[in-house]
Design a protein that fits this description.
about 350 residues; Rossmann fold; 3 domains; about 15% strand; alpha/beta; two-stranded antiparallel sheet; Arc Repressor Mutant, subunit A; five-stranded parallel β-sheet; 9 strands; Helicase, Ruva Protein, domain 3
Length: about 350
């Protein structure tokens, strides 16, 4: 069995609410961001006004949605969530904005994917708590301004550079989430195991954390899958996760000791063999892998760059000496020369 190759693009879905932190004290990791948010929220409460609009950026699965939910709870308002691709027309966002109450938090995921007409509706809402709407069409069209209560807009993006300057400038708070360290992932896994009733040996949890790409969402998904192997192996519902079962599960799912999936390693292999180590653009790699460019750019490439397996240059992607070593492929001399050009 091959594990879902787009490892960063999945959620825990129906099980996530049971383990989602409900307060900053329960939130593990991102200490600087949490500390800053606590200050900003306290100051806003003293001024008796909602928190300024926030833009969260960073790789997927690091807790942007969870932080937005905690913000909503602390402001004692409702939490409204929508994905930017679902806001196809200005009327879609006007309908949502008109339904907001005072101190509500509107969370827009993938905010860099908003269309220009929809984005323009947000400008006046974010600055003046008003939206312009037009009643009827043609000669009888009547523009009116609709007041909306003070609210906090939280935008989440994996591509902050794709936001237009007018929209980006309307966020008073910009915070970037980074990957977690292994100890934080271990703590997250142990908390989840306790809430899910999973029995485990400590070294198995450490191994799951080591292969979790330093991403909580990935770690929780791997914990569930390794638990499946433990249950099947012991043929009882409360099977204990030990190191042997964890390693066996990872081997069957084709997740290596760095947390790279079959797709990740195939990316490195094709870059080394088909393109002589690079440099090469993502489109040729996408065609060779039969995988879409977005998956490669957002879920495959970033983690391998962080591990120093791949470099991104102005001429394209190149595999590093460490990348060659990981796939046990001899590094050609000319490939290494181009790497440092």
């Amino acid at each position: 069995m091959i594990f879902n190759e787009s490892i960063g693009d999945d959620t825990i879905s129906d099980l996530e609410p049971s383990i989602r932190p409900g307060s900053f004290s329960e939130f593990i990791g991102q200490k600087d961001i949490v500390s800053n948010l606590q200050v900003f929220i306290k100051a806003a409460q003293i001024r008796n006004e909602p928190l300024d609009h926030i833009l969260f950026s960073g790789p997927p699965g690091l807790g942007k949605t969870t932080l937005a939910r905690i913000i909503a709870a602390l402001q004692k308002g409702e939490f409204r969530q929508v994905s930017a691709p679902n806001l196809k027309r200005p009327g879609d966002v006007v309908k949502i904005l008109s339904g907001l109450g005072k101190n509500d938090t509107l969370f827009i995921d993938e905010i860099h994917r908003l269309s220009t007409p929809v984005e323009e509706v947000l400008y006046s809402a974010m600055e003046d708590n008003q939206v312009d709407i037009t009643l009827s069409d043609g000669l009888g069209a009547m523009p009116i301004q609709l007041d909306i209560p003070p609210f906090t807009l939280v935008g989440a993006t994996t591509r902050p550079g794709n936001l237009t300057a007018p929209l980006r400038d309307r966020f008073g708070i910009h915070l970037r989430l980074d990957y977690y360290n292994e100890d934080e992932i271990v703590e997250i896994l142990k908390n989840a195991a306790l809430k899910w009733g999973i029995s485990y040996e400590n070294e198995a949890i450490v191994e799951i954390a080591r292969r979790s790409r330093r991403t909580p969402r990935v770690s929780l998904k791997l914990l569930r899958r390794i638990w499946d192997y433990a249950i099947a192996h012991n043929n009882i519902q409360d099977g204990i996760i030990n190191l042997s079962i964890a390693n066996g599960g990872f081997q069957q799912m084709q997740i290596d000791n760095l947390g790279l999936t079959a797709l990740d390693n195939k990316f490195l292999q094709i870059l080394a063999e088909n393109f002589q180590g690079g440099p090469v653009g993502l489109k040729p790699l996408s065609a060779a892998l039969s995988e879409d460019v977005v998956t490669l750019e957002e879920f495959v490439e970033p983690f391998m760059i962080r591990l120093d397996l791949v470099h991104r240059t102005s001429r394209g992607r190149v595999i590093t000496q460490k990348g060659y070593g990981h796939i046990n492929f001899p590094a050609p001399i000319h490939g290494q020369r181009m790497l440092y050009e």
